[in-house]
Amino acid sequence: MAVLLLLFLIAVAVAADEEAFIGINIGTAITDMPSPTQIVALLKAQNIQHVRLYDADHAMLLALARTRIGVTISVPNEQILAIGQSNATAANWVSRNVVAHVPATNITSIAVGSEVLTTLPNAGPVLVSALTFIHSALVAANLDQQIKVSTPHSSSIILDSFPPSQAFFNRTWDPVMVPLLEFLQSTGSFLMLNVYPYYDYILANGAIPLDYALFRPLPPNKEAVDGNTLLHYTNVFDAVVDAAYFAMSYLNFTNIPILVTESGWPSKGSSSESDATLDNANTYNSNLVKHVLNNTGTPKHPGVAVSSYIYELYNEDLRQGPVSEKNWGLFYPNGEPVYVLHLTGAGTVLANDTTNQTFCVAKNNADIKMLQAALDWACGPGKVDCSVLLQGQPCYEPNNVVSHATYAFNAYYQKMDKSSGTCDFKGVAIITTTDPSHGSCVFPGRGGKNRTSTNGTSLAPSSNSTSSGYSSKYSQNGIGVIRDPWKGDLQLQMEDCCKSQFCFSSY
């Protein structure tokens, strides 16, 4: 199966010397872990320009040499106590893991530990010392200007996080957070933060709408409003990031940028993890990429994009915990994509994709009535040529709603140049790399070329739409049967029945 993941990366300028980017984390809890050269080959094929390692593996750093890929390396949690208590130990670590590899390997930052305050609290008292000693070693090697030092935090260290304006860091950690923020400010570094709207959504027990967690558009009356600032929030990600900004300002730090070191959504879960799905993972990560690269910023800092690392490159089958913990990856270890990101139209490039063969198909478990309504819409207001679905035509068989809807959905998706939101149909459609063509029924998009291309403005009904307009059934004896989703079927005399026997209406 061809690797057709529509991955990025295009940098967006936020300042003269800064760029917003999307990166990716590389975990190693995998039974059949690809070799460093295989990993780097995948990174290059997908044009991934920023990665984060959870250690400083020498083989990986050697494989990344001369690729220009920006690399964040990490001091594992188990080494923090030693480094935080010894300047010499920190200097030796930098010598072995940094100096030995630059400039061939483009190391851009060092993450000292991961979520130390919430997972290894006994190392908290020496955390800032560890950062300081690492930075001092970089200064001695004249590398402090190109390599920043910070430490990733769980967003759970932020208390009372909504509304964001009243958020503050857990005061238990003030003796660590204050000197830490002073260090970040004085060295021009950033606050590293792990942001997981998936967990915020799950733990909210229904208080957070799924669309709000997935970056899906919300009507104005559904947006969350901070009563203190009157800022409107359309997604969980922005709210968490702004909560961190406000928490820093509560401690009188207002000029430290935020770097999101982990964010993502699981593509599979157990029966009790019903929202860990391919579609939700695809939606979240696709929207995250567009949100960052479009330089959207947050309500508190509009236009100032927050660079983010997606969690993660591969599914990690050896991770402990529920099924979802093993399924955060964009790829399987063999290099095949878990799903194809919806990035067309987001100002991105297609990486290692000369055919762009993606198709829009009906979900097998979708409600038949919803599929029929979506099929009617596609062959009606969607203006898809559905004549090939008529009896005796190439795509009539198999004669069922799923098959016919798949053809219509895909034809619309291809006709709209695979634009964002054109393969949704109120949640009953999904993108795939598998060509659904069969027999003499050739689907648009085969070979990477669309049969038609249009700049039409009509969008397929999305799962958050309150109205999809009117959808038309085929005409009979000059009578057009128009379906209104609320009023039922209306019969309207049509002066000119559609030649294809599918009537188009624009109410």
UniProtKB/TrEMBL annotation:
<feature type="region of interest" description="Disordered">
    <location>
        <begin position="442"/>
        <end position="474"/>
    </location>
</feature>
<keyword id="KW-0732">Signal</keyword>
<dbReference type="GO" id="GO:0098552">
    <property type="term" value="C:side of membrane"/>
</dbReference>
<keyword id="KW-1015">Disulfide bond</keyword>
<keyword id="KW-0326">Glycosidase</keyword>
<dbReference type="GO" id="GO:0005975">
    <property type="term" value="P:carbohydrate metabolic process"/>
</dbReference>
<dbReference type="GO" id="GO:0006952">
    <property type="term" value="P:defense response"/>
</dbReference>
<dbReference type="InterPro" id="IPR012946">
    <property type="entry name" value="X8"/>
</dbReference>
<keyword id="KW-0449">Lipoprotein</keyword>
<dbReference type="GO" id="GO:0009506">
    <property type="term" value="C:plasmodesma"/>
</dbReference>
<keyword id="KW-1003">Cell membrane</keyword>
<comment type="similarity">
    <text>Belongs to the glycosyl hydrolase 17 family.</text>
</comment>
<feature type="compositionally biased region" description="Low complexity">
    <location>
        <begin position="458"/>
        <end position="474"/>
    </location>
</feature>
<keyword id="KW-0611">Plant defense</keyword>
<keyword id="KW-0336">GPI-anchor</keyword>
<dbReference type="Pfam" id="PF07983">
    <property type="entry name" value="X8"/>
</dbReference>
<keyword id="KW-0472">Membrane</keyword>
<feature type="signal peptide">
    <location>
        <begin position="1"/>
        <end position="15"/>
    </location>
</feature>
<protein>
    <recommendedName>
        <fullName>glucan endo-1,3-beta-D-glucosidase</fullName>
        <ecNumber>3.2.1.39</ecNumber>
    </recommendedName>
</protein>
<keyword id="KW-0378">Hydrolase</keyword>
<dbReference type="InterPro" id="IPR044965">
    <property type="entry name" value="Glyco_hydro_17_plant"/>
</dbReference>
<dbReference type="InterPro" id="IPR000490">
    <property type="entry name" value="Glyco_hydro_17"/>
</dbReference>
<dbReference type="GO" id="GO:0042973">
    <property type="term" value="F:glucan endo-1,3-beta-D-glucosidase activity"/>
</dbReference>
<dbReference type="InterPro" id="IPR017853">
    <property type="entry name" value="GH"/>
</dbReference>
<dbReference type="Pfam" id="PF00332">
    <property type="entry name" value="Glyco_hydro_17"/>
</dbReference>
<dbReference type="GO" id="GO:0005886">
    <property type="term" value="C:plasma membrane"/>
</dbReference>
<keyword id="KW-0325">Glycoprotein</keyword>
<feature type="domain" description="X8">
    <location>
        <begin position="358"/>
        <end position="443"/>
    </location>
</feature>
